[in-house]
Write a structure and sequence with these properties.
With 132 residues, the chain is of the alpha+beta class. The chain has helices at residues 24-38, 52-57, 59-67, 91-97, 111-115, 123-126, and strands spanning 3-8, 42-47, 75-78, 81-85. It is 35% helix and 16% strand. It starts with a strand and ends in a 6-residue tail after the last helix.
Amino acid sequence: MAAIRIYEPALCCASGVCGTDSDPSLVTVTAAVRNLKDLGVDIERHNLATDPIAFTTDDTARAFMHTVGSTGLPLTVVDGVTVATGSYPSRAQLLDFAGLGSASKGAPAPARAELGLAEKSGGCCGGTTGCC
């Protein structure tokens, strides 16, 4: 089963669900992670305020922080591959990442599809995008 890690910006507490004005996306991801853990999924959340060591010991998270910084969080990593940045994955996406969703019934979808990237890319200056 896949190892899912969610690296989050500094939150007031471990779940980020504190007080009366909680971000609805934090409520959703907290419930989804708890549900997946109950199903036996290897999933963990790492809060920059309470678990900064996790951001330095994981190669993917460390590289992300050096390149993008904390403004790009949350970062979702599955088996060392970045699958989402800037927002929390939905429960359905987490189930798919874990191999338990409807998209996972056949062969697992490549991580590139989760990011919405084409299978082949000419790169910034090698393609026909005109970006350079």
